[in-house]
Design goal:
Number of domains: 2
Strand order of the largest sheet: 8-7-6-5-4-3-2-1-9
Number of strands: 9
Oligomer: single chain
Largest sheet: 9 strands, parallel
Structural class: alpha/beta
Helix content: 25-40%
Length: 223
């Protein structure tokens, strides 16, 4: 029974501060193996995030929302190494935290991005400029993809390539701050009237916030 309770308690962990994270590292080293869903954000430092990910090697669902730290050049490499070892299927990530010294990372060359079927990229710049730069369209195993759209900066050609070449893609979520109807009209003008596209102004954080609500069916520890 204690084993089963521990699995439920630590199935989903949300850490948004250094205090919470260090308490988890110091107090729950054995329980880290039970973590399946992990959200790291807020004021958490990159080095701390890397250490937690190294501990939690059974994560299937990860939201990595820590902010980039340009004055610590060795941390992103350490973080990426830890990420590549995870058996992830779902990832929501701020790319600039991992690739702070790389203007445009080529995602297909990184093992992490070849594993996931559900991918959410927080920054809008991944859809700017040269269409093939990030290689998102070559992540053909993706079934669900969520990207941020910025009118007059998003490259329609990249969206077209993603829809054409990601053969397994079932849903393409395009996130906007506001003006859902304007984006839908813009998509039609650009010839992107595809049934797989869903435009939303819903913040990615809302999903994880719901896990800490009283109505959630998931047992969550938000330390």
């Amino acid at each position: 029974m204690p084993h089963r309770v521990e699995e439920l308690m630590y199935h989903t962990v949300i850490l948004t501060s250094e205090f919470q994270a260090r308490d988890f590292i110091d107090s729950h080293p054995l329980a880290s193996a039970k973590v399946k869903s992990l959200c790291l954000g807020g004021t958490l430092q990159l080095m701390t995030a890397a250490r937690i990910i190294e501990l939690c090697q059974s994560i299937d669902n990860l939201a990595l929302w820590v902010l980039p730290e340009g004055d610590m050049p060795n941390v992103p490499a350490c973080l990426l190494t830890a990420l590549n070892r995870l058996p992830l299927s779902r990832l929501s990530v701020r790319l600039s935290a991992i690739f702070c010294r790389t203007a445009t990372p080529y995602l297909p060359s990184i093992p992490l991005f070849g594993k996931v079927t559900h991918l959410e990229l927080l920054e809008g710049w991944v859809l700017f400029g040269f269409p093939q730069a990030t290689g998102i369209h070559q992540l053909t195993q993706l079934t669900h993809l969520s990207l941020r759209v910025v009118v007059h900066q998003t490259a329609p050609a990249l969206l077209q390539m993603i829809l054409a070449e990601c053969a397994s893609l079932e849903v393409l979520v395009l996130r906007v701050i506001n003006g859902v109807e304007d984006i839908e009209a813009w998509l039609k003008v650009k010839g992107l009237d595809d049934p797989r596209i869903m435009v939303t102004a819903t913040d990615p954080h809302n999903f994880w916030d719901s896990l800490t609500s009283d109505n959630s069916e998931t047992t969550t520890i938000a330390l």
